[in-house]
Amino acid sequence: MPSKGKTSDKKAAKSKKASKSGAKTSATKAPKKTAVKPARPKATKPGAAKAGAAGKSAKAGKGRDFEPRIVAFACNWCSYPAADAAGISKMQYPPNARVIRVMCAGRIHPAFVLRALELGADGVLVSGCHFADCHYLFGAKRAAEQFEKTAELVRILGIESERVRFEQISAAEAPRFVKVMHDFVVDLKRLGRSPLAGAAEGELVVPDAMGDETT
Ligand code: FES
């Protein structure tokens, strides 16, 4: 007859084996839990799409964000002091112009205007004295004649005539200078980027040969 102690030992061994095999099967069967995080949508700032579209349109040369580049040839004796007086009087006008001071508007050859357009200007202003005020007697008249040729060349080249402008502004007419600048910027914003300015990306280039009177 087997003793009681031996049977209890056998039972204990059996239960141990069973528990071991059970543990093994549960370990193989149970699938490993892997944490899968749901993909988060990228955070976008409100209005980012809008700003992108505005930037694109500004680059294309249209829309409210487009800032036209203007070259303004201003006579030393009238228009340049008018621009100066506007600044001193803290009159607000668009800062789109690079002002180039010349001794007389009669000096502005059509080639200067075309060269400015070629270098990336969206518009060119030639501004001189009233006919009776010109320091060089016939300089203002000559400026008007030269500008007629300029306007004709611009027309032949297929550029919008509003891109070039001739104005007579005396030193005492600072508010008029401000108005001319405002109107010119509004016109150019409507027209958009100059067709000639396509090649000249970025900043407007004013070569040294035009003098160091650039602002
Ligand atoms: S001096 Fe001003 S246009 Fe001649």
Mean pLDDT: 78
What is the string of helix and strand elements?
HHEHEHEHEH
Q: End-to-end span in angstroms? A: 120 Å
Biggest pleated sheet = 4 strands, parallel
Provide the structure class. alpha/beta
Q: In angstroms, what is the radius of gyration?
A: 39 Å
In order across it, which strands form the biggest sheet?
2-1-3-4
Instruction: List unreliable stretches of 5+ residues.
Output: 21-31, 41-55, 209-215
**What sort of overall outline do the alpha carbons produce when their principal axes are compared?**
globular
* Strand content range: 5-15%
Task: Characterize the structure shown.
The chain has 215 residues and is α/β, with parallel strands linked by helices. The chain has a domain at 79-191. The chain is built from 6 helices and 4 strands. It has a 4-stranded parallel β-sheet, sandwiched between helices. Helix 3 (79-88) crosses helix 6 and helix 4 crosses helix 5 (139-156). It is globular and about 40 Å long. The protein binds FE2/S2 (inorganic) cluster (FES). FE2/S2 (inorganic) cluster binds at residues 75, 77-78, 104-106, 128-129, 134-136, 139-140, 143. The site of FE2/S2 (inorganic) cluster has 14 residues, from helix 5.
